Amino acid sequence: MKKNYQKSMKNLPKDKCEIESCTVTNKFFLHKHHIVERKEIGTSNDSFNCAILCAEHHALTHSGALKIIGVFPSTAPHGRKLVYILDGKPNIPGITESYFQPQTPQMKINTKD
Ligand SMILES: [Zn+2]
User: Fold this and answer.
1) pLDDT tens digits, residue range 13-51?
2) Which long-range contacts (CB under 8 A, 24 or more apart) does 19-24 make?
3) Which of 31, 74, 83, 110 is the most exposed place for a label (fewest CB within 10 A)?
């Protein structure tokens, strides 16, 4: 398990909260947040389902003030860019929804009487 956890952390920033305006660098206050909760659809610890957030920003995801959209491959450090909406403002203008949406089973609706 420990080996898998370390592997999953491989491409994650370990030195700073991923919210651009945030300056928290103390590792003691950095948390790994699952963008899509593992219990919801059996998501993994893959780095593209994880964000590194300080304790304050982590709490904001659970209060709803911070919505993590997802992670995009990028030339930014660590080869990734976190995309999010903080206090109603997207950090990347125009991207307010994930390109990946968890699929729910389709309900078959009979429209004929
Ligand atoms: Zn932060």
Assistant:
1) 888 999 999 999 999 999 999 988 777 677 777 888 899
2) 19/53, 19/54, 19/57, 19/66, 19/82, 19/84, 19/86, 19/91, 20/91, 22/54, 22/56, 22/57, 24/54, 24/55, 24/56
3) 110
